[in-house]
Amino acid sequence: MFLQNGVYCFERVCSGARSYVAYDPQPTEDSVVTLCRYYCAQKGYDSFKRRVSWLQKTSHCSAIVALVEYIGEPLLAASHGNSKDFSRPYVRTPADTMTTIAGNVESVSCKVMYDDMIADMDVLDAPRDTRVVHNKKYNVNAKIVHDKKYISGNIC
Question: Which helix (H) or strand (E) element contains residue 115?
Fold first, then answer.
């Protein structure tokens, strides 16, 4: 069913040309349900697609039923930037974990903090390795030095 010039029609193809023939009698607006579709593919990996289809009444815009379909196999993670280790894909450390590291980095050593976080946290929330903790400690200390306008080294 198609809506052409405010009239509900059905499509007829004859010799490759499409023509629309109006329904007689015309259905009421309350009896018409529209099928809406939305398509997308995974960024950088076109063989995994998602299709969302839903039914909605034409008189109001609330969805009646929705169906989500996934086609293909997802690419879970990819190597990052100039990475040479393709066996371990890049996964960003959550912001809450980084905040926890920043708050405790001055009082506890990096190794102890990393071991405690690995023991206490879920695998997805914990830092990837000790380098994450070391880098955060370096950045926190660099910000402190910059904020105090302290010049390190032998320059007065």
Answer: helix 110-120
